[in-house]
Amino acid sequence: MPGSPLHVPVLRWYAANARDLPWRRPGTTTWGVLVSEVMLQQTPAARVAPVYGDWLARWPRPVDLAEVGPDEAIRAWGRLGYPRRALRLHQAAVTIRDRHAGDVPRSYVELLALPGVGAYTAAAVVTFGFGARHAVLDTNVRRVLARAVGGQALPGPALTRTEQHRAADLVPDDPADAAAWAVAVMELGALVCRAQAPACTRCPIQAGCAWFLAGRPAYAGPRRSPQRFAGTDREARGRLLARIRESAVPVPAAALTPLWPDPVQRARALNALITDGLVEPVGGGFGLPR
Length: 290
Fold this sequence. Notes:
Blueprint: H1 7-17, H2 30-39, H3 45-58, H4 62-66, H5 70-77, H6 84-99, H7 108-112, H8 119-129, H9 139-148, H10 161-170, H11 175-191, H12 210-213, H13 233-245, E1 251-252, H14 253-256, H15 263-275, E2 280-282, E3 285-287
Antiparallel strand pairs: 1-3, 2-3
Helix pairs in contact: 1-11, 2-8, 5-6, 9-11, 13-15
């Protein structure tokens, strides 16, 4: 059973308030968990849900995705953003087919070795996919624990050992409780303990939250640099890739000019897409990798 004073109120709150998200439903495969975790990186759940459903309907197993070209994965990714994730997910599917007999590996270490899988994603898959006992630390969890336990408004930009130890100490002993706790704290951070305008009056652990009891002091740590999008190389890459992705044939270089008039930035964006493996030069134009 849960042992921390935080466990019971958070788990009860989650049972009554959890969103109905497709990757949380009974019957979700471990492959479905992996796909959802990759898609959810830096992308809101509302945007992920429809793409996730279409993706798994088309490729319900890793081997199904591995049998098609990376161009199909990039096209199916659509406008989720950070399209290298589609390429890495395709590469992970090929690795799973070739090295793991088509089954998502069960161990944290083997998951970490898959393309595009980092510490958080590996922890999430072993926890939600296999029911293992593991600390799962995403941005929402870090924020909830920084406030409730550390008394800080926000965690710092980089994950620290203190945070890792704090999260590990709070994982319930029972694996089933551990998985429930992990997703419940994530949901609390997403819906209540938000970065901006936290809804403390609706928080199930307000009475024991160190940050709230201290008067909600302002964040005093290293400042995060805001991520600008308009006019950046990232925006340029997105526009160019969208045009190439939508075409069944290579797109002539001249057809890309109106999409981003600055020739230096346009060339830099194209070179970055090629370096990332998202685009290939074909004749005098550009297409998706095959």
